[in-house]
Amino acid sequence: MAPPAYAFRPMTATDLPLVRRWLMEPHVAEWWHDPETFEFVSGELDHPDMAQFIVTLDDRPLAYLQCYKMSEWHRGFGPQPDGTRGIDQFIGEADMVGRGHGSAFIRAFIETLLSNGVPRVVIDPRPINARAIRAYEKAGFRRDREVDTPDGRALLMIATHGVKAVDAG
User: Fold this and answer.
1) Full residue range of the structural domain in which residue 79 is found
2) Which one of 6, 36, 136, 155 is CB 3.0 to 4.6 Å from 141, fit for a cystine?
3) How many distinct structural domains can be found in the chain?
4) Per residue in 145-160, pLDDT tens?
């Protein structure tokens, strides 16, 4: 059986009501609860260092993904190779959580980045977010170290060419 075909379409202003609804879902709000998150996401639509996507499966929107260049905000990550990208995402549709979609679409996205010359992709979940960490390991990230960010303590995870996805259960 072929793996699911995820599509990553650039987010536009017409997607903002959907993203706002997703941010209010309990499973998203648990980790993306900052009241300024929606203003940040909606205000970054045209930022040159940030690309935002709606992830779809069979034309059904299921998740949000942002991909960004390293900035001063990320100085706690330490030196990174030029061209390193960071990602953040969440599954917005509650009925799609816990079904393997997160690790699968993340893997598809980072494989495209890495095959197009991005030397490293980083992600920084909270150290207590075991479900996300497990999904990121399944997608091909490895744990690096805990870091301090403006949003608090995070686990820096790294994906590069040659890093294999793990069966994290």
Assistant:
1) 6-117
2) 136
3) 1
4) 999 888 789 999 999 9
